[in-house]
Amino acid sequence: MEKMDRRVRKTRALLLQGLVKMLETHDIQDISVKELTELVDINRGTFYLHYDDIYDMLHKIEDEMFLEFNEIMEQKPVITNSLASQGPLLEFFRFLDRNRDLAKVMIGPHGDLAFVNRLKDQIEKRTLQVLESAQSDANYEYLCSFIITGCVGVVETWLKESDPQSPEEMAEILGAMLLRQLNFAPGPA
Q1: The whole model's pTM is what?
Q2: Are residues 95 and 164 in the same domain?
Q3: S-S: 56 plus which of 5, 52, 61, 87, CB 3.0-4.6 Å?
């Protein structure tokens, strides 16, 4: 059974690598099972043992990513007076770093808008919790929109970098920006 699990993991990893490579230059609707399996040298029948089609594969991969992402977001509060070396923000960037290639193509020009919207929804849920706990008198709707767009923009820029900063540095950078916007730290608003 363990041998089978290893083979399944290896097959799925190969398919994922191939999908990421193809998403660098193709929209998802332009990727066929035949092209993907030829790229990674796997029989099409093997692909169909794991997935119904390319969209099913993409959705299952996204579901796995968001399961881990949600676990990170449910940890300690994202916003505290010290975001430097711990907490979900750092774990979020470590998570993205571990999944850099996939996250980069999903957010990129050939990526999946549903993935980006799902990411925004998750950030929005957490941001609203933070705003409510901060008892901010700011207009939640606009501030939340500003924070979500800013966070996604920072992530997108970081993922595009050829020599990116470490997850620790990014947690510091984004943490400081968020703290300033929420008036938890001194600095321009």
Answers
A1: 0.78
A2: yes
A3: 52
Residue 127 belongs to a domain with what CATH number?
A: 1.10.357.10
Question: Of the candidates 141, 122, 149, which has an alpha carbon nearest to the alpha carbon of residue 65?
Answer: 122
In contact, 147 and 178? CB cutoff 8 Å: yes
Instruction: Please choose, from the candidates 77, 86, 89, 81, the residue with its C-alpha nearest in 3D space to the C-alpha of residue 179.
Output: 81
Q: Are residues 43 and 75 in the same domain?
A: no
Read off the amino acid at residue 146: F
Q: Indicate the length of the chain as a whole number.
A: 189
CB 171 within 8 A of CB 93: yes
Residues 70 and 156 in one domain: yes
CA 46 – CA 50 distance, rounded (Å)? 7
For the chain, the domain total comes to 2
pLDDT digits (tens, 9 = 90+) for 64-104: 999 988 888 777 555 555 444 457 788 889 999 999 999 99
| Sequence-ordered list of residues with C-beta below 8 angstroms from that of 97, at least 6 positions apart, any chain | 164, 166, 167
Same domain, 129 and 162: yes
